[in-house]
Amino acid sequence: MTEQTNHNEAGEVAPSADSPEATDIPTSNAPDPKAANPDTNPNAAKTTTAPPKREKPAAAAKAADGEKPAAKAAKKEKPPAVEDKPFSEFIQQYYLPALQKAVAQEGVKDLQISFVKQPVPIKGMEQLGECWQVVGNFADGVRHFNLYFPDEDIQGKKAFSCNEGKRPSTLESFLIDERKTTLDLLVYGLMQRLNGQKWLGRN
Q1: 53 vs 16, more confident
Q2: What distance lies between CA 168 and its chain's CA centroid?
Q3: Which of 106, 118, 136, 202 could potentially form a cystine with 113 if both were Cys, beta carbons 3.0 to 4.6 Å apart?
């Protein structure tokens, strides 16, 4: 007959009827971990401290306040128009070359043109004194024209005179009806005036 092994002899402790056995079954007597005091109840849930909020960057903060953030790169300023250049620079570097080209396209190949300050070459106009002039001649030096700038400003008063083989006799207003003078308009106006004299190649 097999002898029954005594739990005490085998080194095992027999479960006691008085000792509660842990189970996964919830009980109504267990304290609410959220409501219990963590100092007295080890089952109390530990609260986690929320991480501090990051401060908004200055640009984002301004945008939130209705302010537009500064542009990353400033817009490049447009270069000034040629008409806004200093008077002498405009005439010599822009107007004279453009006029020379326009006259050459009309078949005139011997235009001599300069920019000088001299008296108005018309009898009875000596009181005007000196002023800046665009002076040109062609057709073997027979045809002459002068464009006058008494105000030293392309937007100011302008006058024109021409002659063929003799001194000019009249001084004409030039582009007086234009609100703003441009490079193209100065070239076009003089070409029209020379064409009116039937001095250009197509006449």
Answers
A1: 53
A2: 49
A3: 136
